[in-house]
Amino acid sequence: MTTVTLNNGVEIPLLGFGTAAIGEWQQDDSYVTETILKAMGVGYRHFDTASVYGNERALGRAIRDSGIPRQELFITSKVWDSEQGAGTRSAFERSLERLQLQYLDLYLIHWPAPAYTRETWEAMEKLYEEKKVRALGLSNFRQSDIEQIATFASVRPTCNQIELHPYLTQKPLVDFCQFHEIAISCWSPLGSGSWSGVAKEDKPVADPVIVELAEKYGVNAGQLILKWDIQQGRIVLPKAESVPNIVANFELYGFELSDEDIEKIDGLNRDHRYGADPDSAYEDNLNVKVPD
Known about the structure:
The protein has helices at residues 30-42, 56-66, 88-99, 114-129, 143-150, 171-179, 208-217, 221-230, 243-250, 259-266, 281-285, and strands spanning 3-5, 11-13, 17-18, 46-48, 74-79, 106-109, 136-139, 159-163, 183-187, 235-236. By secondary structure, it is α/β, with parallel strands linked by helices. The chain has one domain (11-285): Alpha-Beta Barrel (TIM Barrel). The strands form 2 sheets. An 8-stranded parallel β-sheet has the order 3-4-5-6-7-8-9-10. A two-stranded antiparallel sheet has the order 1-2. Helix 4 links the parallel strand 6 (106-109) and strand 7 (136-139). It is globular, with a radius of gyration of 18 Å. It starts with a strand and ends in a 7-residue tail after the last helix.
C-alpha cells in the first residue's frame, strides 16, 4: 500500500517529505531547493510545507526545476494562526504565489484557534468549491476542535496532521479520527528532528525495544517506526537532509511487521510531546511571524 484514499476520493501518498526547518528554521535558499530535488530524485512525490515554514518559494523552485509533471506531485501547505479568519483566503493566495502553483492538493489549518475556526473553514470551503485545492484538512486538532467543525462544515475534513511517534501514540484521538474517516498524518514521526535540541538517546529511535526490533527485521530504527505507521494506514512526513537518510526513509518495502511487534511499539507510549501542545500553543504561535 503506497497511497490512501481520503474521504473525498483524493489519493494521497502514505510517505511524504517534511520540509520544516531544512537547514535552519524559515531558511529559503538554494540549499533547501537542492535538498527537495534530491528527495524528488529518490522518488518522493508528496511534499508538506506551510506558510510559517518560510520555504514555500524553495519548494516552488524545486517543483519547477524537477521537470516532474504537476499532476504527479502532491503538495500540502497550511494557514498559520495569525492568518486565520478573515485573512485565510489571502494567506492561501500568497502560498500559491510563493509555490508558483495553480492549485494545492491539500490545505490545512495549522493549529486550532476555535474563535476563528468557522470563518477559516468557510473560506477554505470556497477555495475547495473553486477547485483551487483538492482536499481540506486539519493539523494539531483535538477531538473537541473536530466536533466544533462538525456543527457547521459542509465539506468534511479529510485528514488531521498531528505529532505522532512511539512515545506519543495519541490512540484516543487516532481512533476518533479513523472512526469518522479522517486520515491521520504524522509530523515528527521519528520523535522530533535535530532542530529540537533533543538528544538522540532521548528519542524513540534509541529505545531498546525499537533497536531490538530493527535488528530483527534487518532495517534501521527510523525505517521500523515509519513502517509501523504506514502498515496501520497512517501518512508519515519524515524530514531528512543527507542522501543516505532521504533514501533510507523511502525504502520501506521488503519487510512487514507482525501484529505482535506493532503492539510492542504501541506499548512504548509515554504521552510525551516534543512539539507544542494544542491546549496552549495558540498564544505563543501568534508571536511567530510568517515571512513575506
